[in-house]
């Protein structure tokens, strides 16, 4: 049996430190009770003997004395990031042992040292949120962030920060003024922390190369919030004799009223990709731009439709594929996402049981344009999906095989991507076209 | 970790390209039935249930004599279509069973407010910001921060 790892004692103390710190974010640094201050103070001994020792000591002393500077909060963010990074490292190390995974290095991250002016606007917002406390944030305060948010979305190099910040602010708007029970404190502090780190430097585009070969897509994942959606594609790229686990992402800003199959209308420059996905065809790519180590930068012009393939036959190659490390600055348990092929298993009481693995199924990451729903998963027979960690191990199915009327039927997240083709052409049913037509009349006057 | 915002429900956006529950109002932009260049800005205030409807040039809607106009009917219909009856009922602090609401305009009998004029400008400007989202460039690069965003429930037709 494969043992899925659990946080060991040092992870648990790291998580406890995080919990104690997060209470300060919930209450607000300007209003901490003595017991709550202890959570902040505990960071000091925890970082003694580390490179952050004096920075953390200074930041904690400063915050206790009411010096609510962006710098002090940035240091707290760095400290908290290193704690969750340590938990990630411990879990991945054990996971790699259990699954006999070899990992090649990530692509090399590069940053410009000086932040852009807008990043300082964002860190100002984050500081205000921390001082006020997540439980005390008002609708008016959140509305006041609107201008900064809009300026941020105009800066293409900061699209990741924009996606994150807008998702975070949207959530707070839904809850505020919040009651203690409704606030997901760890989650919001995770989002706050990551955003704060992203205000410090401007990401530079990493080095790119080119990839060629035949791509067999195994599954798609599609996280979204009201104003942003990302499609993450996972597949096997074969080039001569070599097979590699290859991924790529496509993202779009959006609005909350674009849902279900309309989401595909946002991605209108990928006809080869969509047709291949809908028809179960491989994709032949030639000199497609790519980051180091198996991340493509999709350009549909470098792609041609290939031929039909058996998804689960190709998925067998996964066990021999190298995996890639994630960039060092991103290490956090939320980014554990191992693509797995599970061959023959039973589904019972929300869990799947295979020959060597037992894991809970994650039904929270269902996608509204996907035919996979909570009922579909029940009859699963074989599946490709993503192993994730969120205080427990979870398996998110991306493509499943069911036996329906004695036949094996493949159901995968992307198979309906062409269903809107008629709507795409008929403007009055194409919600994206309707809104863009309004924009053309009103925004460019 | 849990995410709080369910995805909106599917609806055709031609009649009411923009609806929201924000700034203490159910507000939105309703297309004119007759003139393709004209839109109406309509809202109900969540506390008083006072309402108004005007064009984006602040000309009052002619249908407001004696009660909410057809644009306000559409606003409620489309807001319930998008967010579901329960969220709208809660926002308006109405004591109703969601199942009792077949369509949004059914709520009108409980909304006993009066005409109250406020300028259309902020709602219109929020509509333009909304539209601007679809003009922004996307990306074909890794977007790992989105790993945090999952939906607690998915509504399908």
Architecture overview:
The complex is a heterodimer of chains A (445) and B (157). By secondary structure, chain A is α+β, with helices and mostly antiparallel strands. Chain A is built from 15 helices and 18 strands. In chain A, helix 1 crosses helix 2 and helix 9 packs antiparallel against helix 10. Chain A starts with 8 loop residues before the first helix and ends with a helix. Chain B is built from three helices and four strands, in the order ββββααα. Chain B has a four-stranded antiparallel sheet, with helices on both faces. In chain B, strand 3 and strand 4 form a beta hairpin. In chain B, helix 1 packs across helix 2.
Itemize the secondary structure elements and their pairings.
The complex is a heterodimer of chains A (445) and B (157).
Chain A: H1 9-27, H2 34-41, H3 43-46, H4 53-64, H5 70-99, E1 103-104, E2 110-112, H6 117-132, H7 139-144, H8 146-153, H9 159-175, H10 185-198, E3 202-204, E4 208-221, E5 224-225, E6 228-239, E7 242-253, H11 262-265, H12 271-279, E8 281-291, E9 295-296, E10 303-308, H13 311-315, E11 323-324, E12 338-343, E13 345-348, E14 351-354, E15 358-361, E16 380-389, E17 393-404, E18 407-412, H14 421-425, H15 431-442
Parallel strand pairs in A: 1-11, 15-17
Antiparallel strand pairs in A: 2-3, 4-6, 4-8, 5-6, 6-7, 8-9, 8-10, 12-16, 13-14, 14-15, 16-17, 17-18
Helix pairs in contact in A: 1-2, 1-5, 1-6, 4-5, 5-10, 6-8, 6-10, 9-10
Chain B: E1 18-22, E2 25-31, E3 39-45, E4 51-55, H1 70-83, H2 85-91, H3 121-132
Antiparallel strand pairs in B: 1-2, 2-3, 3-4
